[in-house]
Write a structure and sequence with these properties.
The protein is an alpha/beta fold. Helices cover about 25% and strands about 25% of the residues. Strands 16-15-14-13-12-11-9-8-20-21 form a ten-stranded mixed beta sheet. Strands 1-6-5 form a three-stranded antiparallel beta sheet, with no helix packed on it.
Length: about 375
């Protein structure tokens, strides 16, 4: 283990009992949530920092605690084929089970102090907040929700009872049993496929590619969860035409042509501030390669590119959903989700009319008696 995994705590861990662990013969407790399998002695935390050993069990220390709530456009997750134009109540906690050197939410995901967790909210509080703000869904995002699985699942249960859908934004680094429980609670997901080489995952994320691919296969073949994929293209690391082609071909062969794939631009951050930003031309070239493999819905992200962020009919080429950043500019789908010009079905979860949230961002606070306040 590295220093983060073996750090001793000055104070007792405070948290709720966690699932997915077992005791080893040498007395340590192994966390079985993700493929890291952190092995903990008393008062040690896993690499994620939010799951740790307290006595003879593992506890989750961030249950009911958030780094903040905000109503966003669903396209910001990014999800382009799930209730387009609608608002989503987004929140995260702290910590992460990856160590990505390029993390663009590092102040949350790499947090080792909980002073950033300003907002406390029960699952019912969050469901009520979503209702009162007009959000159609709740997204677990900013940091990876698999590390706060117990909290996310309870929130998802409360949301479903309130007719609010749930979205998991995740790197997909999770083991088989918890994977089943987590995604059984999700209506949609965006999976961050960080690259298509084991070397990238090992060197820049301290992780492995294979478990992420297994999560993607599971979502496609074992669930009804609507999901999309995002790959952040980093100059000199995962943006070669060869790697983009290999990734696209894998998606086509293993998942089929209808899974949307987003290529997003990298901006210097965290421990990769000396790496240049991704040129728009790199994203456009990657999009062309993916389309050539037969994938139908390919998008560019983190740049202004209305053509590359719009949805087109794979039958006749009609622009089905126009997008200017997060504003919808065209809507050419029938109430059943078919192209108005040729009748071909567009894959996704659509309603008769698109939402009208646009690109607004609304921070909210949830007070101790469950009132929702605009921040």
């Amino acid at each position: 283990m590295n220093k983060m995994e073996t750090s001793q705590l000055d104070n007792d861990l405070q948290g709720v009992p966690a699932r997915y662990w077992h005791t080893l013969e040498d007395g340590r407790i192994q966390c079985d949530l993700c493929p890291r399998f952190c092995k903990l002695r008393e008062r040690q935390r896993g690499l994620c920092f939010v799951r740790g050993r307290q006595g003879n069990e593992i506890v989750l220390t961030t249950y009911g605690r958030s780094s903040g709530f905000c109503v966003d456009p669903i396209e910001k997750k990014p999800l382009n084929h799930f209730l387009p134009g609608t608002p989503v109540l987004s929140f995260g906690t702290a910590g992460c089970n990856l160590t990505c050197k390029f993390c663009q939410n590092w102040d949350i995901s790499k947090a080792r102090e909980f002073d950033r967790l300003q907002d406390r909210a029960t699952p019912d509080d969050i469901a009520r907040a979503a209702k009162s703000t007009g959000a159609r869904s709740v997204a677990f995002t900013y940091n990876d929700p698999v590390i706060f699985l117990e909290y996310a699942v309870d929130v998802a249960t409360a949301c479903r009872e309130a007719d609010i859908r749930t979205v998991g934004v995740t790197a997909g680094y999770i083991t088989e049993q918890p994977r089943e429980e987590f995604f059984a609670s999700m209506d949609a997901a965006n999976v961050d496929l960080k690259a298509f080489t084991e070397g990238f995952y090992k060197q820049l994320c301290s992780a492995e590619l294979a478990p992420v691919l297994e999560t993607l296969r599971y979502l496609k073949h074992e669930t009804d969860v609507w999901f999309e994929i995002t790959t952040l293209l980093i100059p000199g690391h995962n943006d070669s035409a060869k790697e983009v082609a290999a990734l696209s071909e894998w998606v086509m062969d293993e998942l089929g042509p209808d899974v949307p794939l987003h290529f997003s631009a990298f901006h210097p951050d965290w421990k990769m501030r000396d790496t240049p930003s991704t040129p728009p031309s790199t994203l456009q070239a990657a999009r062309a390669i993916a389309i050539e493999t037969g994938l139908r819905y390919i998008y560019t992200g983190n740049v202004h590119d209305e053509a590359g962020q719009s949805t087109y009919c794979h039958g006749c080429g009609t622009r089905l959903i126009g997008r200017d950043w997060y504003e919808l500019t065209d809507w050419n789908l029938t109430p059943d989700g078919d192209c108005v010009a040729c009748g071909e079905t567009c894959a996704g979860v659509f309603e008769a009319q698109p939402g009208t949230w646009g690109q607004r961002r609304l921070p909210v606070r949830i007070d101790p008696i469950s009132n929702v306040l605009g921040a």
